[in-house]
Amino acid sequence: MKEVIHVGIDVGSTTVKVVVMNEKQEVLYTTYKRHFSDTKNTVCNCLEELTDTFQNYDMTIALTGSGALSVSEFLSLPFIQEVVACKRTVEKYIPQTDVVIELGGEDAKIIYFGRSIEQRMNGTCAGGTGAFLDQMATLLNTTTPGLNELAKNYNTIYPIASRCGVFAKTDIQPLLNEGAAKEDIAASIFQAVVNQTISGLACGRPIRGKVAFLGGPLSYLSELRKRFIETLELKPDEIIIPEDAHLLVAKGATLDSMNYKPISIEKLKSKIELLKNYHDTTEDSLKPLFTIENEYKEFKERHSKHTVPKRDLAKFNGNCFLGIDAGSTTSKIALIDVEGNLLYSAYKNNEGKPLQTVISMLKDLYSVLPKKAIIRYAGSTGYGEKLMQTALSLEMGEIETIAHYTAAKKFMPNATSIVDIGGQDMKYIKIKNGAIDNIMLNEACSSGCGSFIETFAKSLNLKIDEFVEEAIKSNRPVDLGSRCTVFMNSKIKQAQKEGYKVGDISAGLSYSVIKNAIQKVMKIRDVETLGDSIVVQGGTFYNDAVLRAFELIVGKEVIRPDIAGLMGAYGIAVLAKEEFDTKKDKDYVSQIINNEELDNLKVTVVHTRCHGCENKCLLTINEFSTGKRFITGNRCERGAGIENSKTQLPNIYKYKYQRLFGYKSLAEEDAKRGTIGIPRVLNIYEDYPFWFTLFTNLGFRVVLSEKSDRKTYEKGMESMPSESVCYPAKLSHGHIISLINQGIKTIFYPCMMYSRQEDKEANNKYNCPIVISYSEVLKNNVEELNTQGIKFINPFLPFDKQGLVKRLYELEDFKEYGFTKKELKEAVQKAEEEYQRYKADIRQKGEETIKYIKENNLKGIVLSGRPYHIDPEINHGIDTMITSLGLCVLSEDSIAHLSTVERPIRVVDQWVFHSRLYRAADVVGRNDNLELVQLNSFGCGVDAVTTDQVEEILSSFGKMYTLIKIDEVNNLGAIRIRIRSLIASMNKRKVVQEKCSRRLWNTESRIHKRNEKWLYNTCATNVSSTLWNVWSCFKIWRI
Q: How crowded is residue 571: how many other Cβ atoms within 10 Å of its Cβ?
């Protein structure tokens, strides 16, 4: 009888691990392989290696892992759940463990050991896992171990989203483009993984005791472990790092296999052959991108016609104009002549170093630039616009949406829609009557952009050109849906198991990214609204598969310029030429630094904290050897060292915050009933004047929790039961801890189902579900409330005077204070009076601001959201950023009283804050000098119903709708683009209106002149006092 060995195979989301033991449970053999999404063949290869290595043995085999179930079923081998395999190994090798944190390729788990075992695992998203780290390493042009080495020398931690890779890229790319150190970004990525794991998986259950770190990333990445250890404040004796931690789950499967009958080598080999040749049934596939070869030839021929005129730079002499587009992942330059002919262009990947990349491109240009070619004007656009303008001494900069719009209009004057898909961003510009009617950008997510397609091609070891070529040949593109592309990974893996080829997946992915762009970014319900003159641009549209998918989905032929990836650079070059034409000095020569200066250009990066205002922004200061400085991270002009009149513009967000929390509490010796704490959260931003006045008049010293900041969020991270809840709700956990840390023993935070009905025509007066009852969540999840003897008063209360007096008098929580009905009535009355004074003050401030705007010929932004959006930590200083751009800031409740909404409206109007928003939108629509920006906290389901309604109200007045989604990440780069795009649209609309007014006036003048001549002749030939009176009145009217 042959000797038996025992085999455990862990088929994970990105790797396959194998452990072989003998009867004494001694490890004989291990292997660890990446499967690059081809799990079936990788498992077959591992099994074949086993049969070659252990030819004279029988084997017991058990499989575990997220990708093992279908393989185990086909091979008729036992399958063991990962948590069971992990439990078995932990109990044998590290029995002292209280909590296991395991990170795999696309899986993340926290397992709590004790009387019972509880596992928390991520869902469909791979954020905060090994695959996420691989993506981030690629973005920094390094490997995952390289990421670890970089993090060893960090100085600063930036807030970065890790819920999915594309969100993180959206945060990281601007940091790279603005000169942040890769060492700091690497450490920040690791910290993001830690925050995602703790807040997203622990879900309110604290991580206490001895913690074991398992899985590949936590085995190999010491700096990632270090971030966990520091965040969890683990002592040395609480840290467990087992040997071969990445193989621990496979060891569990090996131990479990000992309970099953062995299989012979011969039988295993026959099963391997069957598995290798197996193809699962496939789903219905999509229409091929091209059905016949001639169709593709016609497509290529049609798109080869759309070219920009070019001239040979080597033979050129005269004036030329330079445009630089420092994009999210690539940099582009374009040199044009006075007629817009393209003289020179270049397109390069940034590789995380945009300035160095552009310098290299400029040196290449200078090496071929004839002496008689004179660069008169130069400008920049894109993510790195200001960095390039400062470092290279460029004359101008312009927001990228306008640069792309300018290029498209130059290319196709009657364009109705411009769709731009770049490496990290998407833009949709809708044009009406020759002017920008609307601009849509991807909000936080960059899914479906070029970088995702490129990253996925790399994961299959293919170049992007090969990936596209396979898509063109595909006969049955797989339907991957239109969900966020990160969520497509599991579906792609399933498609591979079902026999789809790489080309089928590539073609399916092309369809999906276009569906995602149309449905999620452009929000197009009817493709006819795109019009018949559609220009597509951006580097992603160089991909013929994506371009063809777009044409098939919209059912229209579109125009892709031959310089699709250069349109931003070309557009800013055209704008530079137009700007030069306005200059009186036609001998002016661009001040862009020359070749020698490029060689000597040095940059030093310094990080510091700004103390110019309450934002306390973390600044990144790029100091150049030319003496210039470029500062990023600032939310207002003060951070950049600028003090001007813009910072003094009316800002009702700032006024509201100061008015709301500017009350002075009783001295401790005057507070006959003691101290009561109120957390600075959610509906307290609406009702604090009421509660402060009530408790002060009842003899309490009212203490507020601290002003919100990032540390407030981190204080409450362990007790958050849901990752998907909005950021304002997450912050409330930290505010409760803040009050406890201040020594407050009594905390008041009521549940409030209703607010006050402000619009009599509205259907109801509800608060949102989170506001209504989140204090119950806090009571049940903040451990300190129960362990430190805190009296947490959170009753459900009405918000009318009579009902409130009755309820407060009956509450058990207040019995010890001995309130009389009389003093309650008096306190509630005074609270109501102060509450109404506060509301009146805000309304008066709104009216004053509108008057100020009109008198000073300014523009204002109504920053519309919920009351708690005035918290600088929640809005990330958007209000101060807006004032720094020369606009006044109003809030929705400061102007809503000035209008009513025409009814019926399309949605059920039962939420008080929504009713306020609709009325504010109506006010904005009726005022030419106001625009509306809606703030929406990421994850707010209730606010989702407002977007279409607000857009509908604004569009009825010809106004542009801008929605900004905000969460715990404070990168304002994309938001600044949105706001500047809105300003540019306002200015373009004003220009068009002025042109229309001039045309109308000219037309009217011609009519009046004809009428005037007729009237004069009539009066002159019929001398009559009455007729001469008519003539005099006409002249006065004309004046």
A: 29
